[in-house]
Design a protein that fits this description.
With about 475 residues, the chain is of the alpha+beta class. About 60% of the residues lie in helices and about 10% in strands.
């Protein structure tokens, strides 16, 4: 360390260090041009002014509202993401504190035994005690003025990682809500399929009863009754298969919400309100850059890598340190607070690379590679978001058309089955015609319920693809209005 009264000496040492820094390879330029996005989504609807992003989730469903609110409080995945955010904030606070002075205090008692003979005649005369006790207390302070900005760059990197962790937590929240919505929709779809199958079974039972009556009257063979009963048995088999799918849904919701199966089943037992399929909202590809949490996280990670590169490049330059100590030193406790016991020093130091044999250049190259990787990850997140949004729009258009056709098919086949039944009762059609018409109508009801469920699921996919809830709502629970 160099005393403050020698500024010329400091400059003399700093000059070769600065010249050595200039001789190192400069930090490479890593280009990060913004990705080129289309002006509109290819599969987006032509007009969707009245549609809203919030309406794509089943917010009116009390089961979704209950399970989503519980998940936002108890979900392990969200708690883990929020803990990582707190850790990033702590690292950012530490990086900011590195730019401030560091002040410490200490106190000590030191017992030392010496050989007076080493002091020659003074020791032999008894002027030097054999045992020496020192009492001391010090306050020390040191500060790096960060002239070349290495600490500032490190702080920027830490703050950018806080932004990345916050966006990642928002992405976890969106994924959580989307998974819950999808499972609730699947549960409601299973209920609709169950209702359709139960109606099919009831119709098959009526046919079996009619065939049995005609068999007893000698108007029809027993084979007609057996075929009708077989169709009713097939409906009961399909009903039993639905229960295994419900068990899977309950298990997934237990994992998502962090509550037991009984509470999940209680929430799913809440009645479902009737609701139409919402329209797809209008959006622009450029909005993904501001709304998608994963894109925001990738952008923040890119900013952090840029600051890391700046910090690595500034390690080439010397670092200045100012430090000082003021304290008390005495050999008797009674003299500790005497004015003569006050001691201290003030020091200015400079340190920097002179011959590091490529260490700093390697760090710079590593940071530059990290920035290139972060930019590639950012571009990947942008185009992944673009692809998912296009998929969401396309699936909504396709699944909505499929659901409409399936409902129309169901209604027509149900009407045909009713006409075939009426003709059979009037003796104008045989039992096989009635049975085939009923079998076609039965299958169409379940297909229509499944198609409507896929259309509702496609809307959840688009909600997540467009960024989910706006940032102002991501810290709170799900809205149900």
């Amino acid at each position: 360390m160099i005393p403050c009264r020698s500024p010329r000496a400091i400059l003399a040492l700093a000059l070769p260090l600065a010249l050595a820094a200039c001789g190192l390879k400069p930090a490479p330029e890593v280009a990060t041009p913004p990705p080129a996005l289309p002006g509109s989504f290819f599969y987006a609807p032509e007009s969707a002014e009245s549609a809203s992003l919030e309406s794509l989730l089943p917010r009116e469903d009390p089961a979704f509202a209950a399970l989503a609110g519980t998940a936002l409080e108890n979900a392990p995945t969200l708690a883990e993401a929020l803990a990582r955010l707190d850790a990033a904030r702590g690292r950012a606070a530490r990086a900011g504190a590195e730019r401030l002075p560091n002040v410490t205090a200490d106190a000590s008692i030191r017992e030392q035994r010496i050989n007076p003979a080493q002091f020659g005649e003074a020791g032999a005369s008894g002027l030097i005690p054999r045992n020496l006790t020192q009492y001391g207390a010090n306050v020390s302070a040191s500060w790096d003025p960060d002239i070349f900005g290495q600490l500032r760059a490190s702080e920027r990197a830490a703050i950018a990682r806080v932004d990345a962790a916050s966006a990642e937590a928002a992405a976890v929240r969106n994924a959580l809500l989307a998974e819950i919505a999808a499972n609730v929709i699947d549960w409601r779809t299973l209920d609709a399929r169950r209702a359709a199958i139960e109606a099919d079974e009831a119709a098959a039972q009526r046919l079996a009863a009619l065939a049995a009556t005609r068999e007893e009257a000698g108007l029809a063979p027993g084979f007609d009754r057996v075929r009708a009963e077989a169709q009713a048995s097939a409906s009961r088999s399909r009903l039993a298969a639905l229960e295994s799918e419900k068990v899977r849904i309950v298990g997934q919701l237990v994992s998502l919400t962090g509550v037991d199966a009984a509470r999940v089943r209680a929430a799913l037992a809440l009645p479902e309100p009737s609701a139409d399929l919402p329209q797809a909202p209008a959006a622009l590809p450029s909005e993904l850059l501001a709304n998608r949490p994963d894109v925001l996280a990738a952008a923040a990670a890119l900013a952090a890598s840029d600051a890391d590169l700046a910090a690595a490049s500034r390690a080439r330059f010397p670092r200045f340190t100012l430090s000082g100590v003021i304290g008390l030193l005495a050999f008797d406790p009674e003299d500790l607070f005497d004015s003569n016991s006050i001691v201290g020093n003030l020091t200015a130091g400079v340190a920097g690379p002179l011959l590091d044999f490529g260490r700093i250049e390697a760090e710079i190259d590593t940071a530059a590679a990290g920035k290139r990787a972060a930019f590639a990850a950012y571009r990947g997140a942008v185009f992944r978001a673009l692809g998912e949004a296009e998929t969401g729009y396309g699936l909504i258009a396709a699944s909505t058309a499929e659901a409409a056709q399936a409902v129309e098919e169901r209604d027509r086949l149900e009407r045909a089955a009713q006409l075939a039944d009426a003709r059979y009762r009037a003796g104008l059609a045989d039992f096989l015609t009635v049975l085939e018409a009923r079998r076609a109508a039965d299958a169409s009801g379940e297909r229509a319920a499944a198609a409507i469920g896929r259309a509702r699921r496609a809307r959840v996919l688009l909600w997540q693809a467009l960024g989910g809830d706006p940032p102002s709502e991501r810290q709170g629970g799900p809205t149900t209005e």
